[in-house]
Amino acid sequence: MRYEGLSAPVDTDWRGLVDTILRRRTPSRVYHMELFQDAEIRDAVAERFGLTDDLDPNDPHYEKRKYIAVQRFCGLDYVRVALDDLSFPLINATTEDTAGLRRSGGRAYRDEHVGPIRNRADFETFPWPDVTAPAVTRTLEWYQENLPEEMCIVSGSMSHFCEYLTWLMGYERFSYALYDDRRLVGDIADRLVAFHRQALERYLEYDRVKMIFASDDMGFKTGLLFSAEEMTELVLKPHRIIADRTHAAGLPYLLHSCGNLSAIIDYLIDEVKIDGKHSFEDTIEEVREVKHTYGRRTALLGGIDVDFLCRSNEDEIRRRVRNTLDVCQPGGGYCLGTGNSVTNYIPLDNYLAMVDEGRLYGRR
C-alpha cells in the first residue's frame, strides 16, 4: 500500500489544534485527535517507517522519544501524559488477546461483580493514591522540558467519576448500593472529586499543558449505566467542578465517554460546558449526523467507527474519511480520528489509510 499523504511530514501546530477545537475558524489542514494508540500499534508504526532509527534504545527516555516521533508522524500535535504512580488497586480479570498485534499478557478488564470497596470499612481503609507526592509529575516534567515547541501536552487520565464509582465497588454491587447504602456511594463520589481536583492542580503547574482530556465511560449502546438523575448528581456535577476550574485556567475541557449519552448531552454541553465530545459508535450515533445538531455547540472528535475500520477495505475507508471531512471540517470543531481509540485489533494498514487520507485532504 502506498501512503502518498504520509510521505511528507506535517508541521505540528498545537495552537491550530486548539483553535480548531474551539471552533474559531475552518482550519487550513486536518487536525487529528485520539484518546490513545495501543502500544502495539505505536510500535508497529515506528518499526515500519523507521521512526526510531536515530534513537538510542539504551536511552532511559527512549520510549518517550519514540512516542513523540510516532505522534508527529501521525499528524498529532500533542502528547497525552498521565501522572505517575496513581494506579488504583482494582479487581481485574484477564483473557487471551486474539488481536493481530496481540499482547503477550492478554487483555484485562474490570470485574463487574465486586470491587475493592465492599462496605464502609473498606472505604475507610482504602489506599487512595497520593496526588500531592512530588514524584507524580516526573513524566510531566520531562515532557515540559523536552517536547518540541510546536507540540503541547494534553492531560492523561482525568475525571473518572462514573468509571471509578463502578470499578471501586463493582458495577453489580454499586447498583445495589444506590438503594441499600446511598450514603457510602455519595462519600466515594465526594472523595473522587477531591482526588481529581488535586490531580488537575498538578497538571496546571505546567504551562505546556494546553488541554484537559477527561475520560469517563457513562453508558452502553442504548442508554446510561444508571439513571440520568443519579448520573447528574454523582458524575456530571463533579465534571462541572473540574471543567469550571479548567476554564478558569484558560484551557479547553474535552470529554471521552462511550455509550448512548442522549439523555445527558445537553447537560454536558450547557452546564459542564465541555469543549469537545469524543467517542462515536455507528450503532449509537454517527459523527456526520450530529455535526449540525449538537456539533454546532461543541467540537466533535474522531468518529471513524472502530468496527468499520476493522472490517472495511482501503477504498471504503478513504471514501468515508473524505465524506466525513466534507461534512465536519467547515467552521472548525472537528478533528479526525477513530471512534474510540487506535486498538491493536485494527489492521495497521486500515489505520494508516485513515491517517493518510486525512493528510491528503488537507493538501487539496
What does this structure look like?
This protein has 364 residues and is an alpha/beta fold. It has a single domain, classed as TIM Barrel, CATH 3.20.20.210. 43% of the residues lie in helices and 10% in strands. The chain is built from 14 helices and nine strands. It has helices at residues 14-21, 39-48, 62-73, 120-125, 138-146, 161-169, 171-180, 182-203, 228-248, 265-272, 287-290, 306-311, 314-328, 348-363, and strands at 78-81, 92-95, 107-110, 152-155, 209-215, 253-256, 276-278, 299-301, 334-335. It has a seven-stranded parallel beta sheet with strand order 1-4-5-6-7-8-9, with helices on both faces. The protein has a two-stranded antiparallel ribbon with strand order 2-3. Strand 6 (253-256), helix 10 (265-272) and strand 7 (276-278) form a beta-alpha-beta unit. It starts with 13 loop residues before the first helix and ends with a helix. The mean pLDDT is 96.
Name the features.
alpha/beta, TIM Barrel, 10% strand, single chain, 364 residues, 14 helices
- What portion of residues is helical? 40-55%
Tell me the number of structural domains. Answer: 1
CATH architecture descriptor: Alpha-Beta Barrel
Task: Please outline the major beta sheet.
Answer: 7 strands, parallel
End-to-end C-alpha gap: 21 Å
Give a quick rundown of the structure.
The chain is of the alpha/beta class and 364 residues long.
